[in-house]
Amino acid sequence: MLTNRSKSFWLLLAPAFIALLVVLFIPLFTGGYYSLTNWNGNTISDFIGLENYLRAFKDQAFINSLLFTAKFSVYSVILINVIALLLATLVTQKLGRWTTLFRTVFFMPNLIGGIILGFIWQFIFNKAFESIADLTGINFFNGWLNTPETGFWGLVILFVWQMSGYMMLIYISFLNNIPEEILEAADMDGANPLQVFFRIKLPMLMPAFTVTLFLTLSNAFKIYDQNLALTQGGPFNSTQMAAMNIYNEAFSMRKMGFAQSKAMIFLVIIVIISIIQISITRRKEINA
Predict the structure, then answer these.
(1) Looking at the predicted structure, is the pLDDT value of residue 103 above 90?
(2) Cα distance between residue 277 and residue 128, in whole Å
(3) For residue 243, what pLDDT is reported?
(4) Over the stretch 189-210, which tens digit does the pLDDT of each residue have?
(5) What domains are defined for the chain?
(6) What is the largest CA-CA distance in the chain?
(7) Which of 107, 142, 159, 176 is the most exposed place for a label (fewest CB within 10 A)?
(8) SS3 at position 37
(9) Is-cis flag, bond preceding 203, omega within 30?
């Protein structure tokens, strides 16, 4: 039997510890140091302390990208989880042989890479929508990626379409774990389907909400490739998300130290939001 004092225990944990050290902790501390310098990717000439951080908080483009990312995340997280839960409820009904087909079809968008997905939806918004506008004369479908408002909703639609199927699988696993005895008892007591869903299923799905909210929040905040492929941050950086702003600062402007300070600020924001979300949903689990 392995114990925390045995050599075998630490030997088995060693690969995981080494991987965390190399992939997570060393880059984190190295990046923290670089954020305090004027590193340009090749050399460090000065240690400038918190100057990069002060500049970052005064950088209006960075602040706008953070606000845009926050707005995008709020709408995306709500829509993804609502749609995913509806899809999970649908495919857990008695649909016979169609159940597997529906699950596969709903999950497939998640298998497509972000860049390819962005180009697919760029074609839909630019070509397909313009064809609809030409046929119907409805101006609503024209220039969908040419304005900040429609560009924002284009990104939301893309991300919701990509992530809903993945979140659906998580909800399915939790829905399938609800004891049949409870549902049968509710049915015998005369509860209708809506009452069963809101009074029994929804409270018992709180652990699923903890997982799905965390995953959708973290993915929404760090989205980059879809943003690049669909709008490239345009028009006039109005749809530029935080990850793209940081990337452009580092690799286009060659201000690696400044970009690293933005990345550290962004990391702290994500960690704080994630901790708040997990603590709230965990509390709801206990109350449920």
Answers:
(1) no
(2) 38
(3) 94
(4) 888 888 888 888 888 888 899 9
(5) 47-287 (1.10.3720.10)
(6) 76
(7) 176
(8) strand
(9) no
Q: How distant, in Å, are the alpha carbons of 65, 225, 238, 243, 250 from that of 219?
A: 16, 12, 20, 11, 21
User: What per-residue confidence (pLDDT) applies to 287?
Assistant: 60
* Residue 201 burial (C-beta neighbours within 10 Å; 0-12, 13-18, 19+): buried
pLDDT of residue 130: 86
- What is the rounded distance in angstroms from the CA atom of residue 42 to the CA atom of residue 270? 29
Q: Which tokens belong to 79?
A: 């829509």
Which has the closest alpha carbon to 205: 89, 102, 99, 94?
89
Rounded distance, CA 28 to CA 242, Å? 18
Q: What is the pLDDT of residue 214?
A: 92
Helices (H), 50-176: 51-58, 60-91, 98-107, 114-123, 129-136, 148-176
Cα dihedral sign, 210-212-213-219: positive
The one-character DSSP state at 141 is: G
Please report the pLDDT score of residue 10 as a whole number: 81
Section 178-188 average pLDDT: 85
In this predicted structure, the answer to whether residue 162 has a pLDDT above a threshold of 90 is yes
User: How far apart are alpha carbons 209 and 217 in whole angstroms?
Assistant: 12
State phi, psi for 286 to the nearest 5 degrees.
Answer: -65, -45
> Structure tokens of 167?
């979140």
For 91, half-sphere exposure in the C-beta direction (CA atoms, 13 angstrom radius) is 24
- Selection from 241, 246, 269 nearest residue 258 by Cα: 246
Residue 25 near residue 247 (C-beta atoms within 8 A): no
- Kindly report the CA angle at 103 between 98 and 106, in degrees rounded to 5? 120
Q: What is the mean pLDDT of residues 78-107?
A: 86
Decide: 209 and 80 in contact? Cβ < 8 Å: no
User: What's the mean per-residue pLDDT of the chain?
Assistant: 88
pLDDT confidence bin for 242, thresholds 50/70/90: very high
And the tokens for 266?
Answer: 């962004």
